[in-house]
Amino acid sequence: MAQMNMLHAINEALSIEMEKNQRMVVFGEDVGHFGGVFRATSGLQEKFGRDRCFNTPLTEQGIAGFANGLASNGMTAVAEIQFADYIFPAFDQIVNESAKFRYRSGNLFDVGGLTYRTPYGGGIAGGHYHSQSPEAYFTQTPGVKVVVPRNPEQAKGLLLAAIRDPNPVIFFEPKRLYRASVGEVPEGDYEIELGKAEVVKQGTDITVLAWGAQMEIVEKACKTAEADGISCEIIDLRSLAPWDVDTVAASVKKTGRLLINHEAPLTGGFAGEIAATIQQECFLYLESPINRVCGLDTPYPLIHEKEYMPDEHKTYEAIKATVTF
Amino acid sequence: MSNATMNNDTVHRVSFLDKASLHIPILRILQADGTTYEQAILPNIDQALAEKIHDTCVFTRVLDERMLGAQRQGRISFYMTCTGEEASIIGSTAALDDGDVILAQYREHASLRYRGFTTEQFMNQMFSNEKDFGKGRQMPIHYGSKELNYQTISSPLATQIPQATGVAYGLKLQGKRNVAICYFGEGAASEGDFHAGLNMAAVLKSPTIFFCRNNGYAISTPTEEQYAGNGIASRGVGYGMHTIRVDGNDMLAVLAATQQARAYALEHNAPVLIEAMSYRLGAHSSSDDPSGYRSKEEEEKWQQHDPVKRFKLWMINKGWMDEATDAQLHEKYREEVLSAVKVAEKLPAPHIDGIIEDVFDKPTPILKKQLKELKEHINKYPNAYPKSAGRL
Prior knowledge:
The structure holds two protein chains of two kinds.
Chain A: E1 2-5, H1 6-20, E2 24-28, H2 44-48, E3 53-55, H3 60-72, E4 76-80, H4 91-98, H5 101-104, E5 114-120, H6 135-139, E6 145-147, H7 152-164, E7 169-174, E8 182-185, E9 198-201, E10 206-210, H8 214-227, E11 232-236, E12 239-241, H9 245-255, E13 258-265, H10 270-282, E14 291-295, H11 305-308, H12 312-323
Parallel strand pairs in A: 2-3, 2-4, 4-5, 5-7, 6-7, 10-11, 10-13, 13-14
Antiparallel strand pairs in A: 1-8, 6-12, 9-11
Helix pairs in contact in A: 1-7, 3-4, 8-12, 9-10
Chain B: E1 26-27, H1 47-72, H2 86-93, E2 101-103, H3 109-115, H4 119-126, H5 160-173, E3 180-185, H6 192-204, E4 208-214, E5 217-218, E6 221-222, H7 233-239, E7 242-247, H8 251-268, E8 272-277, H9 296-303, H10 307-318, H11 323-344, H12 365-380
Parallel strand pairs in B: 1-7, 2-3, 3-4, 4-8, 7-8
Antiparallel strand pairs in B: 5-6
């Protein structure tokens, strides 16, 4: 085990797989010699050469199309989109191509070797265009997997699994935690299975579900609630597509209550999908309506970032309201 | 031929074209010592215009220096300078009519100043206070001014390029004798929107000036890793539009090219592409450190081509400027910027009610409900929301 931050853990995962898989290439804007604007790809060009880790011209649409092409012909492509806010020029290539390559060809062709890495989320004074959490646009796209890690250890294991998964994966990295989240990370190669949620804390009164950077927020809120005598079960969903209905349903059947927290706006957010499924699965077990604490239905505002965020105070209040319903 | 090519030359042996097939000269009027080339034809410029350009240069230099400092002190969260590119930005804007619409990328605050944006207005945006036209919603330097025909900056690159085509087409239909000018970098020219915007402008005959600031770097990525062709100008010819490459550090060359581009665009209802060759002397932004991707020697070499100094020397040669006046102007703006900072940073943030405004023309019922709940919540936790607590 070694102490490291999330960027370091991501860098290790990339390096491990590039070492093992000679067909893997890493590319995107500024990822080459410079190592990416956040330095997630630092040193990879020096280690593996310019053919395997390189800058692309500034075109997300091109990056995604190029990645599809590489992966469709037997390469392992790890493409960085510099900010998730800038993924939209690539939307066509991801939604109509990456996601449907296998299905439309009757499995003659696939782009399973493709992983998009992209930093998402707010809390860094990034305003509209360096703060968004666009995961729900992609969870409604059958054919791409969506994964979000919460800390360095998870990031390394999930990223290795994502790169090796035989399906295209969008790997959203919580940039607020890139340097802020430091923890023990196992050495060497390991994977964390995609599609599996993790119960990070057992409890009996309410299930509190989140992913990525919001995990530390809900953990703080639950701590406050515990002091009031409320026993919280905390789940990190980790994979949003496909998502682990069984683990969440089992927890809600035990606690009878569910609160979902995400940074993206409430309306059309992934919490709505979870709530609908869980009320179907757990209707007779529910003791209160499923609650959601999410971003406001506005673009991400700079000056009122604190007010916009589904923070620990809002989450704590929602836990209380749900438990005393 | 029906497929709209230019000529019908036929050859009977394989012969490829390459990037050298297209010869693209670079327009230079002003020499490093402030004298003009002998054969050069000067743009339309009198003393008043020259003074206004110089004044904008000095203000911009001072603003960039002071606000980068303010960012380092933690007074604002972010900043971007346009140091080294003033001639490209100001020289082109100075060729326009105030009714021409500017769609900038983000590094063109000097254009806005040229149009009359006040020091106070710059500060209000950067400090996200209640007087900011953008209501504090965007990062510093994302200015906009309806009055000055300067559309509000959006961080995503190149989105403004096809938009400029649409703006100019609309101006044409409205019968206005105005163009749209669109600024972008050579990096943004790699985006799909660049192709879409230029091709549409040429096909639909939209009077747009596409102004490419080729400044050598897209964050860390040098031009050699951005494109393999003959710059950006070669593409304009491919799209069938009038195209020119100019020395972007030569105020008179940029002014001359843009004056003529504007006249051509209006006369022919057609777009023009200008590629200005320059160098981003500063970092990409306050979040960037260029020492990770380029040498001090390279930066120092480009310091020798300072566009502001070159233009000042020309004015001095003309007897329109002297060093003492120039120094006084710097001093005046240093004081002006500093005192504007002190005022702007004390003004309160925009009221929380604004958070749900402008999502649509009117707040929807769900937004009103979210605001009501938010305010109740802030009342419970005033310490957690210092920007809005106590003034709900």
